[in-house]
Specification:
Layout (H helix, E strand, L loop, with lengths): L5 E8 L2 H14 L6 E3 L6 E10 L1 H16 L4 E11 L7 E8 L1 H17 L12 E7 L13 E11 L1 E10 L2 E11 L8
């Protein structure tokens, strides 16, 4: 990655109380599911779109798309609860917290973001969107069979009032990724009051 490009993603940030609850459950699960790399509490978020390395000209288009998508959707509330894994099956490689309620509003915001990005010449996402908060990743590419024991309904992690869409920068370092906000676009459109 050159100095002119930034590694970026678009996310919904979580309040401290929700991140603390997710971190507490992660700590409890460490002994049950070994061989995982856990996301630090300060990095927990809900990714709407990973963009990868973005140059300065494209970054301006992304900023515009984030602002347009945010303006089209009214603030809403989601709740997080339960645990799932990707891929589904015998040995998931990613452990995540589910969006228990409000998922349809997150999906609507994602659709607005995708449309705004594509309208500005940025290729659309090829994978299906699934709203979640990543908690851990298996170090073994074959996954972690131990995760199967913890997946399911599980605990409630709390509510998140979504009032802004964030364009984030990811900087990789020896201690893992460090995230910083490049743009915070407030929600404000007419889509579903929540």
């Amino acid at each position: 990655m050159s100095d002119a490009t930034l590694r970026t993603f678009v996310a919904l940030l979580l309040p401290d109380g929700v991140r603390t609850g997710l971190a507490a459950v992660s700590e409890e699960l460490r002994a049950q599911a070994r061989g995982l790399t856990w996301v630090p509490p300060e990095n927990l978020h809900l990714t709407l779109r990973f963009l990868g390395e973005v140059g300065p000209a494209t970054l301006e288009h992304v900023r515009d798309a984030v602002a347009a998508a945010a303006a089209a959707v009214a603030p809403f509330t989601v709740s997080l609860g339960g645990l799932g894994g990707f891929p589904a099956g015998r040995a998931p490689r990613v452990l995540w917290a589910s969006v228990a309620t409000g998922g349809e509003k997150v999906e609507a915001l994602f659709a607005e973001l995708e449309a705004a990005l594509v309208a500005r010449g940025i290729p659309g996402e090829s994978r299906a969107f699934h709203a979640h908060v990543t908690l851990a990743r298996a170090r073994d590419p074959r996954g972690a069979k131990e995760l199967l024991r913890v997946l399911g309904a599980g605990p409630a992690f709390g509510e998140v009032r979504v009032e802004a869409l964030h364009l984030m920068r990811s900087e990789l370092g020896p201690r893992g990724a460090r995230y910083s906000t490049l743009t915070a676009a407030p929600l404000g459109g007419p889509l579903g009051q929540g």
